[in-house]
Amino acid sequence: MLLLSAFLFILILFLITFFYLKGGDFKEMFKENPDDLKFDEQENRTQGWLFIAFGIGFLLFILFLIFKWGGSILPESGSVHGADVDSLMLITGVIISIVFVITHVLLFFFVFKYAFNKNRKPAFFTHNLKLELLWTALPAMVLVLLISIGLYNWNSIMKPLDDKDDKVLIEIYAKQFDWTARYAGNDGKLGRANIVLINNANFLGIDTTDVVSFDDKIVKNEFHIPVNKPVQFVFRAQDVMHSAYMPHFRAQMNCVPGLKTQFNFTPKYTTQEMRRITKNPDFDYMLLCNKICGMAHFAMKMKIVVESEEDYNKWLAINPTFR
Amino acid sequence: MDIIHSEHTHQESFISKYIFSRDHKMIAKQFMITGFTMGFIGIIMSVLFRLQLGWPGERFWINDLLLGSWANGGVIAPDKYLALVTMHGTIMVFFMLTAGLSGTFSNLLIPLQIGARDMASGFINMLSYWIFFISCIVMLVSLGVEGGAASAGWTIYPPLSALPEAIPGSGLGMTLWLVAMALFITSSLIGSLNYIVTIINLRTKGMTFTRLPLTIWSFLVTAILGVLSFPVLLSAVLLLVFDRSFGTSFYLSDIYIGGQALERFGGSPILFEHLFWFLGHPEVYIVLLPSLGITSEIVSTMSRKPIFGYKFMIGSILAIGGLSFIVWGHHMFVTGMNPFLGAVFTITTLLIAIPSAIKVFNYLTTLWRGNIIFSPAMLFSIGLISTFITGGLTGLILGDATLDINVHDTYFVVGHFHIVMGLSAVFGTFAGVYHWFPKMFGKMMNNTWGQIHFWITIVTAYGVFFPMHFLGLAGVPRRYYTNSTFPMFDDFVNLNEIISIFAIIAFLGQLIFLFNFLYSIFKGKKATQNPWNSNTLEWTTPVKHIHGNWPGEIPEVHRWPYDYNKPGYEEFIPQNIPLKEGEIESSH
């Protein structure tokens, strides 16, 4: 609140100063001849300078943001495919930064340089086919590059795992307002489920007569996955739409009632390794809800632990099977 | 078509002149006042939830005062926070930036700039406004009903919006939201039809399509987009009404809620998303194109230079309009939609960058070697070029399916669309108001206050929305009541405070505009007929409004609207001035 008061104070100070500079007469501020506008070079020059000042201020503000919070954005990706996402992000980021700077420099420079001057005769420049084709073709070429890399990555990320691949199969189940994970167990298959079977003891609605479900394992609060092994996620939702968002793995998929969705990735770093990389001893991978789902949407979370396959197997063994 | 309104001798009563008016100029004012009032309410909502985001859990007396039972003890309740976010989005996108912007300037400028006595149908025009007005009332009433207003986000995805068990706002509040939107769509549809018919049929002699001001081109494409896409939203809304009230299952399947399994099978929420975004994406351009048109006009006039690449500008408006219909899927990359579709929508989406780039470079070339007069309208137009670039560029990230996976539904999206669509459209609106205020009210707005308003607005607007990209890159999801449940977001506590402070100052800055606006209506300097030395036809009408716009004959058009500083001729040549002997029409 202190910060807020300080800002408001500065704003009021600014307005009073301005008011004073303008002669301090309130009525005076409204006594201007609209026709003067066009011929007051001084006023237009001032606005031109203000744009230059704004351009510099904008740049400084961005640098300040990068300096202060640039380090707080997501760390290096914890999954294998995430590296591709990040490198494409970098390429796109560099391209848009360059375009952003060039166009803004041109914009602010032009409005500064060509601020009203009664001796200048503006150019009568209506069109130029070559120029216009140039800035049609140039973006098109850059886009071909971005689209190609993007599609290549997209197709490889979204490709489902083969049945015969060695993988971990986990169902992520979303309901208002918590997450549940179900492991497929030794048979590598998830038992059937149906909403009519849901009750307090069986809140996933698992079919207890389905043999495949017997060795399924249900965990809450946190779930573990082994490092360097593909994990196949299947998502279900009980009541409304949710979205399973695992930002550190560059992974996200909506959980839709009545529709099974899926996503897979291979974890690259264990939680311990990631703590070293981020230099944050409290670092944890997190599963967040990222689709508005009701009152406590903001509190719907589950911890993810990535560990060696050995530790993972030990942890999994402790958890009881469904039946 | 001269006959419709040419007889303006009869005395009009107060009601037929100010309330049930069929004069497009009055209807434009009605749309503006109503739209801006809604916009003002929408902005206040954003300030209130920014207080919660900046200082979570802190008590604010203003919450007690304005929100009452929504904020017991001065702290907004979590579900009411969502109601505020939802209503802010709905009001700003539809009521302020669709009706408030298109309704105002299409109505005001179409007949004046094409040289028509009025809209094709004055009655339908009046109807369009009054249905919109009722829609506003219903939407505002929904704020006060039991359970609160709709709270499922402005996109109202079912099942959250379909089931009152899921969130209190999905009770009567949601029903009223749907009713209000159905009315709104009706109003928008008949309005748009009227605009299209008017532009095609009522152009004055000589006003060919290649002599139309770019404002009219953008209004035309906007209206076509509206006519083609709003009916799809209407159908989505109606099916949702069926699901909510008549037990159908268009969007519902396999749901267990409130302790029981619902007897609803076979529907899919994804269907709703497709229907919603089939409108939702063109809607972005329904909001944006009029602003781009207004800016094109102002940038040319105030640079005292013809717009550069007139035909490419038209082409890019048409390209943007056309492409906007085949990109809706980029809102759904992570819904479980077939990845192949994701690939297709990536391609179509990124293509929009091409016409957008053309527009930006053409604006820059128009400014180059101009003689720029910084009226407040021009300042806001330059601001729009800046926000259009800034926000448009981050679209390259969100439109790419691969990159969208990780920034989807985060604050990156909030920053992106507020800058590219919100700010650009708002800047275009302000530019339009400052520029055509003399035409609307016969008075001038104050310049100095206009300049102060601009500088406060652009600084604070970037201050609010630019930092949000950093939040998004850190994975902060949107629509979170507070970020304090996740320690990974603790670094951003101060940044959220800063954003909120900027938001408060931005709001205070708008009070300057409001004051200037109201003061100028009553006490402003009298306007001259053509205060900006502009070429378009609206400035050939008398300052005092008359029915039928021109006292005598409708002017005939002899040239394009951008003959500024044509070598060897006057500084500016209005469209109704015939070519001089030996003068060749400017090629464009």
What secondary-structure arrangement, pairings included, does this model have?
The complex is a heterodimer of chains A (323) and B (588).
Chain A: H1 2-21, H2 36-39, H3 41-69, H4 80-113, H5 129-158, E1 168-175, E2 178-183, E3 217-220, E4 222-226, E5 231-237, E6 242-246, E7 251-255, E8 261-265, H6 271-278, E9 285-289, E10 301-307, H7 309-318
Parallel strand pairs in A: 1-5, 4-10
Antiparallel strand pairs in A: 1-2, 2-3, 5-8, 6-7, 6-9, 9-10
Chain B: H1 3-6, H2 14-19, H3 24-54, H4 61-67, H5 78-114, H6 122-141, H7 172-201, H8 214-245, E1 256-257, E2 260-261, H9 269-303, H10 310-323, H11 339-351, H12 353-367, H13 376-398, H14 401-407, H15 411-441, H16 447-465, H17 468-473, H18 493-523
Antiparallel strand pairs in B: 1-2
Question: What does it look like?
Answer:
The complex is a heterodimer of chains A (323) and B (588). Chain A is an alpha+beta fold and 323 residues long. Helix content of chain A is 42%, strand content 18%. Chain A has two domains: 111 residues; 151 residues, Immunoglobulin-like (Sandwich), CATH 2.60.40. In chain A, the strands form two sheets. In chain A, strands 3-2-1-5-8 form a five-stranded mixed beta sheet, with no helix packed on it. In chain A, strands 4-10-9-6-7 form a five-stranded mixed beta sheet. Chain B has one domain: Cytochrome c oxidase-like, subunit I domain (Cytochrome C Oxidase, Chain A), CATH 1.20.210. Helices cover 61% and strands 1% of the residues of chain B. In chain B, a hairpin with a 2-residue loop joins strand 1 and strand 2. The longest helix of chain B is centred in the first third of the chain and has 37 residues. Chain B starts with a helix and ends in a 65-residue tail after the last helix. The N terminus of chain B is likely disordered. The interface between A and B is large, with 124 and 136 residues.
